Amino acid sequence: MISLEFVVIDTETTGLSPYQGARLIEVAGLVVEEDWKINIDKHFHSLINPGVPIPVFITRLTGINSRMVRSAPPAEEVLPAFFRFLSGRTLVIQNAPFDLSFLNHYAKKLGFPELTNPVIDTIWLSRRLFCGRHNLDLILARLNILAEDRHRALGDVILTARAFVKMAAMIGKEEVIKMASQKVSGRKPPF
């Protein structure tokens, strides 16, 4: 059996697309170790100063306002350390295309290569188990996980990690490891 270390990641942003000017305002990552234990001590978290005012609707959603990020470091300072934290680990992301679009946009902008880590999208796992929609709140409800600290990067990675471990146990950890061992071309589900 292949052993892997997973890192659950999440971003918070000023909008929906980095290609339309939206910027990162928070990143977080949390390690799920080879024995499928969530290691809260192995995490990365940082607010990011986007250099622009945070829209009111984003503040309502995340609770992050412009005053909170005023003294936070810019993406150029945060992301190199975050990319090192991700190195060599399989990424677990709720709605991977969204977060990867921002991270790869910034990687290119900062002169780093795009992320090539294997990726497991928790939406893919949810589709294997449940019918209907697959947003994080619905996944958590189906798994009887209380949704606390939603729409903050660290809170969401903790919740996503708990959902990932539960869904992996339901699907079969060997199957999840097999999925993680495959490079996902175009980030489409490997099944």
TrEMBL record:
GO terms for molecular function: 3'-5' exonuclease activity; DNA binding; DNA-directed DNA polymerase activity. CDD domains: DEDDh. SUPFAM superfamilies: Ribonuclease H-like (SSF53098). It comes from the Bacteria. Residues 5-173 form the Exonuclease domain. GO terms for biological process: DNA replication proofreading. InterPro entries: DnaQ (IPR006054), Ribonucl_H (IPR013520), RNaseH-like_sf (IPR012337), RNaseH_sf (IPR036397). One of its GO terms (cellular component) is cytosol. PANTHER family: DNA POLYMERASE III SUBUNIT EPSILON. This is DNA polymerase III subunit epsilon. It comes from Kosmotoga pacifica.
